Amino acid sequence: MKKINIVGVPEHFNLPWHLCIEDGEFEAVGIDLQWKDVPEGTGKMCEMLREGKTDIAVVLTEGIIKDIAAGNPSKIVQMYVESPLVWGIHVAANAPFNAISELENQKIAISRFGSGSHLMSILNAKSQNWDTENLNFEVVNTIEGAVESLQAGKSASFMWEKFMTQPLVDQGVFRRLGVFPTPWPCFVIAVRNEILEQAPEIINQILEIINITTTDFKHIPSIDKTLAIKYNQELSQIQEWLKITKWSQKQLKEETASLIMEQLLQINSISSKVATSLVLK
């Protein structure tokens, strides 16, 4: 039995992995796939890849591209979710802000530097024609940390996936001033180069298994109800999310990776485009 460590956010996108593990599909081919939830998000998962604390990460596309450009010894082996991620732009329910334009020069809560919440905040600021050199951030690690920061007035706004934050909006903890969809596929599967060299056939088996499940995921009987219960969501919200979410079984295109690097260069998130390929060929 070959042990492989994998990490991902504790969100509805990753239920296919849990279903495969619970059904013993990896175990049946001699793979002990050990899943770990990482609520801190992509920045933390990139760190875990760099430090060898995980073998595989299901991460935000822009985050892992930024980190590979900075020297992370990993490669993107496949897209995971092809559709954009819809980022909600949130403030505390009792905050004095009523429009995104009012957030200019206000402190932004992020899970950590290099995370999706960080990079998307910069891209959103750029789309608003704000001076991105003046952005001020507070690291809050998790959604819970963001709730505390916004309610205490330590920061003004926080960007996170719209549907996962919907319960906080419904409860009157957050108000959502708008949304910002990523202009590219949102999640990819990244693997450390060492594992790709040592066990390429095992990685291929893992991808084959997860791809079968994601291909049929939306057709699983009552999957909307399962998701709603497991992730504390209203059924109507899950049904809306399922309509706009598209899993992928294909590799990320080189030109898409190049486009993302161009965007990261424009916001000074990377110093230069990497010469070597980010994606496994």
Sheet with the most strands: spatial strand order: 2-1-3-10-4
Looking at CATH, which topology of the largest domain would you report?
Answer: D-Maltodextrin-Binding Protein, domain 2
Average per-residue pLDDT, rounded, comes to 94
Number of strands: 10
**What is the CATH architecture descriptor of the largest domain?**
3-Layer(aba) Sandwich
* Coarse shape: globular
CATH H-level superfamily of the largest domain: Periplasmic binding protein-like II
Parts with pLDDT < 50 across at least 5 consecutive residues = none
Q: What is the straight-line distance between the termini? A: 27 Å
The helix content, as a percent range, equals 25-40%
Query: How many domains comprise the coordinates?
Result: 2
Tally the helices.
11
Q: Give the percentage of residues in beta strands.
A: 15-25%
Q: C-alpha Rg, in Å?
A: 19 Å
CATH class categorisation of the largest domain = Alpha Beta
Biggest β-sheet description: 5 strands, mixed
What structural category arises from helix and sheet content?
A: alpha/beta
What sequence of helices (H) and strands (E) makes up the elements?
A: EHEHEHEEEHEHEHEEHHHHH
Characterise the protein shown here:
- The protein is of the alpha/beta class and 281 residues long.
- The protein folds into 2 domains: 2-83 and 185-266, Periplasmic binding protein-like II (D-Maltodextrin-Binding Protein, domain 2); 86-181, Periplasmic binding protein-like II (D-Maltodextrin-Binding Protein, domain 2).
- It is built from 11 helices and 10 strands.
- It has helices spanning 15-22, 42-50, 61-69, 116-127, 143-151, 166-170, 193-198, 200-216, 223-230, 235-244, 254-266, and strands at 2-8, 31-37, 56-60, 74-81, 86-92, 108-110, 137-139, 157-161, 174-181, 187-192.
- A 5-stranded mixed sheet has the order 2-1-3-10-4, with helices on both faces. It has a 5-stranded mixed sheet with strand order 7-6-8-5-9.
- Strand 6 (108-110), helix 4 (116-127) and strand 7 form a beta-alpha-beta unit.
- Helix 1 packs across helix 8 and helix 9 crosses helix 10 (235-244).
- The radius of gyration is 19 Å and the shape is globular.
- The two termini are 27 Å apart.
- The mean pLDDT is 94.
